[in-house]
Amino acid sequence: MAPKGGKGGSSGGNLSIPASCPGAFSSPDSLVVFVLSILVFVFFVAVFFLRCSSNVRVSPGKKLVGLPYVLSVTCFLIGFACHWISLLFRECDVGSYYDFYYWKIAVNVLIGIGNWFLLFVIVWTLNTMLQEHLGYRMTSCKVVCIVILAVTGMLTCARIGLGSYDLWILAEYWESSYDAYPKLNVAYWGFYLLSTVTSGIFSLITAIPLNSRLLLGSRLLGWIVTLLISNVIYVLLITVLCLLDLMASIDSWITWTVVGYTADFFRALTCLLFIFVAHNLAWSKETSTGTNTTATVTHHQPMYESVFIAHQQHPQDAPKSGKPYYHK
Predict the structure, then answer these.
(1) In this structure, is the dihedral angle defined by the CA atoms of residues 159, 254, 232 and 39, taken in order, positive or negative?
(2) Cα 47 from chain centroid?
(3) What is the DSSP code string of 262-278?
(4) Number of H helices, E strands in the chain
(5) HEC assignment per residue over 158-207
(6) Which of 134, 196, 306, 321 could form a disulfide with 30 if both were Cys (CB 3.0 to 4.6 A apart)?
(7) Is Transferase included in the keywords of this UniProt record (predicted)?
């Protein structure tokens, strides 16, 4: 077990990045994981810069990609950057062996926070915007959304705390915290999936009447449906992996890698689709009080529409290639 506050016995001479990394990524498995992690990172970089573009910042639905959305994308961006950097450092033997686990803690925290903020945008921001567009407030829907976010927030804190604790002390398999983490992970993602589906139902219940009253264009409704489907796929894939990990019924590295990174790409796609939804001109249509008529707001400028799952690796059995180690 590594000292809690120490570097695990590393020497200062090992902390500089070597000019070359002989033997790095000699395994096809490790190279594939590294390339996929880079691709996911680049995807989030593109989403981040697209969000920062002037057109999106003045779009009619800019509230949808406001501060919670930016925080979510930023956490994902930094988290996946830490992921591929840690892979590179491990292949080049930079730092101590236990430094790899400290990187994993950072990834665990950042991705966990990003997941909660993404759920906040889906559950709260999208639904409240649709309800405001309809012209009335659905109190029961808001109460359910608040409960969902509160419970998910508590589960997120517990999951981040327990996962980081296991990584910090490099817990052995017989530690109780290690036995508890896969179960907590399944509970977390199971509730996350239920929350996503429930929120999606609320969104569709509101969006379909709006579409029939010409308050939402059919294209915007299509973007919303696509966004909800993408998000459900990403959460469902991770939930399935967590269940399989809990039952210890999957050992294939290919399955872990393909399913895990497919979920990551759908997560990034969900973030991208929020921008298309926010950019749609249909948000500029408002309801006239007491009628079903619409009026186009003229002060808006025209716009063109344009992944380690639960399973901990330990010093004695942590190969340079294997399951994606980062916490989804």
Answers:
(1) positive
(2) 13
(3) HHHHHHHHHHHHHHHHH
(4) 9, 2
(5) HHHHHHHHHHHHCCCCCCHHHHHHHHHHHHHHHHHHHHHHHHHHHHHHHH
(6) 321
(7) no
- Asked if 217 contacts 133 with a C-beta cutoff of 8 angstroms, the reply is no
pLDDT in tens, 158-176: 999 998 888 887 644 545 5
Instruction: For the beta carbon of residue 112, count every other beta carbon within 10 angstroms.
Output: 22
How far is the first Cα of the chain from the last one, in angstroms, to the nearest whole number?
Answer: 25
The whole-model pTM stands at 0.79
Give CA–CA dist 128/289, Å, rounded: 18
- Interhelix angle 67-91/28-51, rounded to 10 degrees, is 150
How far, in Å, CA of 140 to CA of 195, rounded? 15
The answer for residues whose C-beta is within 8 angstroms of residue 148's C-beta and 6 or more apart is: 119, 123, 195, 198, 199
Task: Report the C-alpha gap between 218 and 280 in whole angstroms.
Answer: 11
E strand map for 198-323: 285-287, 294-296
Please check whether residue 278 is in contact with residue 61, taking contact to mean a CB–CB distance below 8 angstroms. Answer: yes
Angstrom distance (rounded) from CA 137 to CA 126:
13
* Alpha carbon separation from 21 to 17, 93, 94 (Å, rounded): 9, 8, 10
Domains of the chain and any CATH numbers? 26-285+301-317 (1.20.1070)
Cα–Cα distance between 152 and 191 in angstroms, integer? 7
Asked if 328 and 309 count as a contact pair (C-beta separation under 8 A), the reply is yes
